[in-house]
Design brief:
It is built from eight helices and two strands.
Length: 146
Amino acid sequence: MNQEFRCDCPITTAVDVLGDKWLLIIIKQMIIQEMETFKDFIESDEAISTSILTLKLKCLEQNGLIERKNHPTNKKTKLYHLTDKGLSLIPAIVELAIWSDQNLREFNPIMRQSDELELMKTNKAEFIERLKKNYKEKLATTMYMR
């Protein structure tokens, strides 16, 4: 990986890797919305362009957060799955969701309320474990498990 880092601070280092507006969204889409193909991401509500998506998937792969595999029945289709390193971002994503709900709702009145958000706020640890478990179970039931 040819990543440039600004300094030796762990927070700054994380921001150097994850600090653009697309990377955590792509990871969130994989975890919560079960997206795994290029087409899935392109057709999402977030409306990422194909050129940016290509760059961001490559970045996530180079940083070991996702892996790319051929679809077992269509070799032209690539599947993108989170690695253990990528899954380890779930607590950070949950914290961001809680923080956003508590601090940004006034600026984004269309931000949705959901049972999942309430569970995040009331039992964060259970919610995180459920996300990890569901993601791993989904991968285990497919023939493209690593």
